[in-house]
């Protein structure tokens, strides 16, 4: 119980999501896919966005979650469930491990399947380039992802500067747009960088 409360206090992140209820399998599928495609994570069902515990009927939620994982995710996403009682309310803790079958796609509508990755506390739709990068990724512990000289160049630059854009990185490392973008995506996926894409021009910062 204490562990769950500590987890909730951390707030939503690239590894944690709160859901008061799970009612639409197509929408939760995007979250499941984003965790499986990135570094894994947990969904706390029965917790509001502000961290207030509302509790759920776990069997009802499991039904919708499993429907989403099996039929709205391709390939299907593995889910692990744990029911935690806290002050007479039950919170369903759903763990989604990082997948060895990347990329997973979520069904948005009939014949429309899209990829997602987890960036901060949001599931972000992937581009074709990211999709290709995911296909070539092998899941492994964060600390063991080897970095090449171009990737180290980004991190060194960001230790001395607050942010970097795709264009800046292309110029800095003398790389094509495609190659530079794939490197930045890899560093986001493995938790080294954060993508800020709400601005006029997207930029990256250290995580």
Overall description:
Helix content is 37%, strand content 26%. The chain is an alpha+beta fold and 207 residues long. The chain folds into 2 domains: 2-125, Schlafen, AAA domain (Methyltransferase, Cobalt-precorrin-4 Transmethylase, Domain 2), CATH 3.30.950; 140-206, Winged helix-like DNA-binding domain superfamily/Winged helix DNA-binding domain (Arc Repressor Mutant, subunit A), CATH 1.10.10.10. A 4-stranded mixed β-sheet has the order 1-2-5-4. The protein has a 4-stranded antiparallel β-sheet with strand order 3-6-7-8. Helix 2 crosses helix 3 (58-71) and helix 4 (128-135) crosses helix 7. The longest helix is centred in the first third of the chain and has 14 residues, at 58-71. The two termini are 29 Å apart.
Number of contiguous helices: 7
Percentage of residues in helical conformation: 25-40%
Strand proportion, as a percent range, falls in: 25-35%
Mean pLDDT: 88
Largest sheet: 4 strands, mixed
Structural class: alpha+beta
**Order of strands across the biggest sheet?**
1-2-5-4
Q: Kindly identify the CATH topology of the largest domain.
A: Methyltransferase, Cobalt-precorrin-4 Transmethylase, Domain 2
CATH class of the largest domain: Alpha Beta
Distance between the termini: 29 Å
Q: Pick out the low-confidence regions.
A: 140-144
Structural shape? globular
Number of domains: 2
The counted number of beta strands is 11
Reading the helices and strands in chain order gives: HEHEHEEEEEEHHEHHEE
Oligomer: single chain
Radius of gyration: 18 Å
**Gross CATH architecture of the largest domain:** 2-Layer Sandwich
Give the CATH H-level superfamily of the largest domain. Answer: Schlafen, AAA domain
